[in-house]
Structure formats: structure tokens, C-alpha cells
Specification:
By secondary structure, the protein is of the alpha+beta class. It has two domains: about 90 residues, no CATH class; about 90 residues, no CATH class. Helix content is about 45%, strand content about 15%. The chain is built from seven helices and five strands, in the order H-H-H-H-H-E-E-E-E-H-E-H. The strands form two sheets. It has a three-stranded antiparallel β-sheet, with no helix packed on it. Strands 1-5 form a two-stranded parallel sheet. It is elongated, with a radius of gyration of 23 Å. The two termini are about 25 Å apart. The relative contact order is 0.13.
């Protein structure tokens, strides 16, 4: 795995549990030990993902814990539960598309996450009508009036506000990326040239 036990524990503590387990399992690649037949490997992976989905549905909560995973697996093993395996063929009937904001999706996990509008400039603070900050015993503010005139006090630093907005957008992007169990798809506009965007952060 090229990871120490401390690193594994740290990932479990700091990441959504299923996300951490997914990374561990994909690093270990147990399907390679299970079989050398490509079709059977794909079936193994499909049913591994199916098990993840079943555990999410079992809990009916925003976040999944290790104890809940142990409980679910323990119940099914002890009672000898059987479940039809998932076919590797594509089945669109069970596919659901959920439109949500990043904030509303906190604590939730999805098989695939699609991020649109990653080309929007995240450093643009001109649209902000009212911004106030209290830091180091000083109040800074900017106000945009209906007539288009913007007022600000002497404590207001546009450069600092831009940096803080970019940092906040980066944190929001992290939340969006960690909602994904399997895939994350982001949509960019190659003709757009923002100063900085989610797309440019994703491109590194």
C-alpha cells in the first residue's frame, strides 16, 4: 500500500469512512488475488461497489461510521444473508441524479459526483454587495449601493479579501471532491480564462 499504519488511521479519522476504505481497497486490489480472469475481476469490483451502496442505504444517516459498517456486515454474516450479485452489464434503471449544493451535501456520499461551472472565477469579489470582517480588533467592510457606488473603510483590504475568498472556495471544493465514492467528473470551459477557478485548482 505504501502507507504506514499511522497514515491509514489518519485517513480514516480525517476522511469520510467509505472514501478512506475505498482508497485502501483500491490500493490493495483484492480482486487481483481473487482471480486472473478479467471478467471475474470486473464482477468482483462491481459487487464491491454494490456492497458499499447497500451499506449506505442501510444506515439512513448523513455519515457512515466504522461501527455501523461492522454492525451491517456482522448482521448479514451471522444470519447468512444472501444477495443476488450485480451484473457487470450497464443498468440505467437504478440510476438516480441528485442536484444539490456543496453545503447541503456535507456528510453525504455519492457513487459519482459531477461538478459543473468549474470555470467560474473564484477570485471575483466585485459581485459582493456587503462584506464585513472583524479580525485583530479591527472591523473592515465594503458596501455596494444600488447606484453602483462602492464604499469601504480604511481597514478593508481587497487583496486580503480575495485571498480569503479563494481559500474558502478551495475548502468548498475539497468538500465536493470528498463526496465521491467512485468517480468525480468536473466540467470546464476551455474558452474561459478566469484568474483562478475550481478548474485551475483541479488541474494543479
Amino acid at each position: 500500500m505504501n502507507m504506514s499504519w499511522e497514515s491509514v488511521l489518519n485517513e480514516v479519522y480525517t476522511q469520510p469512512v467509505l472514501y478512506a476504505l475505498k482508497n485502501i481497497i483500491e490500493s490493495l486490489r483484492p480482486w487481483d488475488n481473487y482471480t486472473q480472469i478479467p471478467e471475474k475481476k470486473r464482477l468482483y469490483i462491481a459487487n464491491h461497489e454494490y456492497l458499499m451502496e447497500k451499506m449506505i442505504k442501510f444506515t439512513h444517516v448523513d455519515t457512515l461510521t466504522l461501527n455501523q459498517i461492522i454492525e451491517y456486515l456482522g448482521i448479514n454474516i451471522l444470519t447468512g444473508q444472501r444477495q443476488l450479485s450485480r451484473s457487470v452489464e450497464v443498468d440505467d434503471e437504478g440510476v438516480h441524479v441528485i442536484c444539490s449544493t456543496v453545503h447541503k451535501s456535507k456528510g453525504l456520499e455519492y457513487g459519482t459526483v459531477i461538478l459543473p461551472y468549474t470555470f467560474e472565477d473564484i477570485s471575483d469579489i466585485k459581485k459582493v454587495k456587503l462584506e464585513t470582517n472583524y479580525n485583530d480588533n479591527s472591523l473592515s467592510y465594503t458596501v455596494l449601493f444600488e447606484n453602483g457606488i462602492r464604499e469601504r473603510n480604511s481597514n478593508y483590504s481587497e487583496g486580503k479579501e480575495v485571498d480569503e475568498q479563494i481559500a474558502e472556495e478551495a475548502r468548498i471544493l475539497y468538500v465536493a471532491l470528498t463526496r465521491s465514492i467512485r468517480n468525480c467528473i468536473w466540467i470546464n470551459n476551455i474558452d474561459s480564462t478566469p484568474q483562478i477557478s475550481w478548474g485551475s485548482l483541479l488541474e494543479g
